[in-house]
Amino acid sequence: MLSLSRCTARSISLRALRAHHTQRPPLNSVTEHDLAHFAKFLDPPAILSTLPPVSLPADELDQFNNDWMGKYHGSSTTVLKPKTTQQVSEIVKWCNERCIGIVPQGGNTGLVGGSVPVKDEVILSLANMNKVRSFDPVSGILVADAGCILQSLTDYVAPHNHIMPIDLGAKGSCQIGGNVATNAGGLRLLRYGSLHGTVLGLEVVLPDGTILDQLTTLRKDNTGYDLKQLFIGAEGTLGVITGVSILTPPAPQASNNVILALPSFKNVLPLYEIVKRQLSEILSAFEFIDRTAYDLAVKHGQGRALSDQEVEGAECFVLVETSGGRREHDEEKLADLLESLLEAEKPLINTGVLAQSPAQFASLWALREGVTEAVSKEGKPYKYDISVPLSTFQEVVDGTREHLRSKGLLGDHAVKHVIGYGHVGDGNLHLNIVAESYTPEIQDALEPYVYEVVASHRGSVSAEHGIGAMKTHALHYSKSDVSIAWMKKIKDLFDPHGIMNPGKVLE
Amino acid sequence: MLSLSRCTARSISLRALRAHHTQRPPLNSVTEHDLAHFAKFLDPPAILSTLPPVSLPADELDQFNNDWMGKYHGSSTTVLKPKTTQQVSEIVKWCNERCIGIVPQGGNTGLVGGSVPVKDEVILSLANMNKVRSFDPVSGILVADAGCILQSLTDYVAPHNHIMPIDLGAKGSCQIGGNVATNAGGLRLLRYGSLHGTVLGLEVVLPDGTILDQLTTLRKDNTGYDLKQLFIGAEGTLGVITGVSILTPPAPQASNNVILALPSFKNVLPLYEIVKRQLSEILSAFEFIDRTAYDLAVKHGQGRALSDQEVEGAECFVLVETSGGRREHDEEKLADLLESLLEAEKPLINTGVLAQSPAQFASLWALREGVTEAVSKEGKPYKYDISVPLSTFQEVVDGTREHLRSKGLLGDHAVKHVIGYGHVGDGNLHLNIVAESYTPEIQDALEPYVYEVVASHRGSVSAEHGIGAMKTHALHYSKSDVSIAWMKKIKDLFDPHGIMNPGKVLE
Q: Of B194, B221, B325, which has the smallest distance from its Cβ to A460's Cβ?
């Protein structure tokens, strides 16, 4: 009986927990009184504010209040740039007691509005925490402040023949803390796996100001719950990542690539199987581009990798990249692959072109990466970053096109192209709808349609960009009610006052 | 003010949460009444019990109540063997309402007593949930019931040229659900990384009976908190894993190995750097064996890989394994490595022997794996499975030896050998102390000494074996008070009644 009565007591306190989440009161704004407190432990240059006594003009905070796409706009009055974990802890502790919202901000290079305020939260910039704490060239384990820029870390480990396990277009400005907080995917995921595997430890300032030090430099540590995993991909809603321990792989000695023209999408998957088997450990990218995307890229200035004749009858293209330890071995494997593909009884490919020089290597990648630019030049793009089973890539693209046609929205007056490209190896499809202009009709035809298609395949509405402020309403298409309910319980447990990056991830 | 008052309310409910944890009342025992309820949805063969009406003799439950080492003993009256996730859910729901403890049990092959009851908890065996749910040979993504035996999954994917990302000595009886619950490491971690990276999704029955379905088959899904990570390594204390989605890598086409004799431990790390650089992606194991361990293995019947002359002056040995996509390429890389090592101006190695046949390949591994057996034959071993920085391996082994010497415990009367071997690549050192017999003096000299040494290097007191019932008291040597406090909060949130694998991981 004792235990049963206790169970009841606990159930009540848990119901209380849930109840609180929904009826969260508004957060407080920063005041001069708060600035005076921050000034006690922060140098003057670390406090940017439109409030007295600092009284900066509002536009000095624009770069922090707005995202780089100009799509999301906050109205924060104050940006704080601490230099130490202790300073971060004191800021967070104070904001928690005062119920002031905080937006942790790294390079502010996100695509879903996760790193700018929704209202006037304090912006906590990690930019001044940019030191490498340690690097062990033997194990390849790097420990760095969260504010270190990805490219600078890549440069730091390069002389030791190591590379970072992630690579992104934004590498020049994104920060490692932000990469981890958003569980960034990028170009090396196929080869080196996700950050859930390569991040070995984290230092996190929790919403009550407590410093959670799990900054281990161990490859293996099997002692209790792996709490750090919760902060990877939480987009700063559970705490502020201040330090990262990450495993950096040895640098490959050679890279090469080849572009293949396929008569039919049906051949992509059998091709992927063969390529995986023949190239196994040196396969580092397997990128899919459909015909429409290829033609657009060429139309808008990308050097054509293949001749008219070679392109003729091709329904789609695949870019294969290898990265290995010895050039001659890798080239032999790749040449043999190409030969066996071309000489097969029922060839899966029409033709293939192997890069013969660093310049050609770069131009093949430019073709793949040029698709994004071409799409923007061609019209107004609706972009979806989704994960669906490899076998459904074409089906999803064609289905969307037919859906728009059935709505009378296909054609120069509305939607000009529906294209698909992306990372076959990761099951990550970039579905782009190129329209003459943005219209409510097209928007309504696409959503929730696309999300429902993704859900029907048990896919992900955000393969690598995260949820941020943009997709909180779409979370339920990829996560069950039970999952979302438990996310909210975790959020309540760590951040009962709801101060950490409010309005992001969870509605 | 509103918000401040609310904050206070929340703080109280959180304090309540914490308070509860420590004053948890005793759990209830299973009764005939409970058996009658289970019989409503479980077939008779799925209920093994010493209670009426089943009334089996107690020894029929021995294999479930005791671990394979005979070190841990439970006194459970009842073992349930559900066939479906729904049945697991109904069992857990009932036990939660009745406050009856549950021990999820897979192959019961653990080393820390995590899978047997501490008292008379119900044993929930996953053995009858042993179906493969799906396998995609293109992506290599396998979805299986938690009760599938690791070896049977390895056999299942083999015809598709895939392998499981983990391999263990216990592969013939351990189950994938148990592997995930204990975050098993094993022999392939250096190459394929930890389960936190290779497990893509889980199906878990939570302590209130709710089914948390995160059984995604997506390589990339960036939609909210990655809850499944909490259950990887939680050893069944947060819920029962019933299904696993895991990424299986392409099978390597060729494997080879070489044993190297080193004049000094100081050479191990520079050697590891060179080997990593020259073999890069085909390096699949880098195992360290000190001289004492080598001599013991030879003394107790392992074929000697090297001649007396070759062994002379060797302080330690390294076993290097490669696994790659093409035999001739791999052999060339390995041969070139050996040549460059031997012809170096200041050679890091005295000599090296390259396996010339599958038989030699096996015998080199037998030498490494034979150390464990040799140690047992030589005396009574005290075994420590720890993670420490690579650079401190020898220091930890020698320091322990000196410590024992200073206590007058080194010599045939007490401790005969202190040896070190293990996975350099993973930073995982197996520290073995071989004694004439187990004595309180030696035990007291070793603990907490060894744990304190580990803590001084910010190491792990359990690199891969987990905490179970054995090391709950030592958890604080590897995890900060803050980390442990938050583990307890997570435990309270998921399992307020404390029914899931009580007495494991957290005291």
A: B221
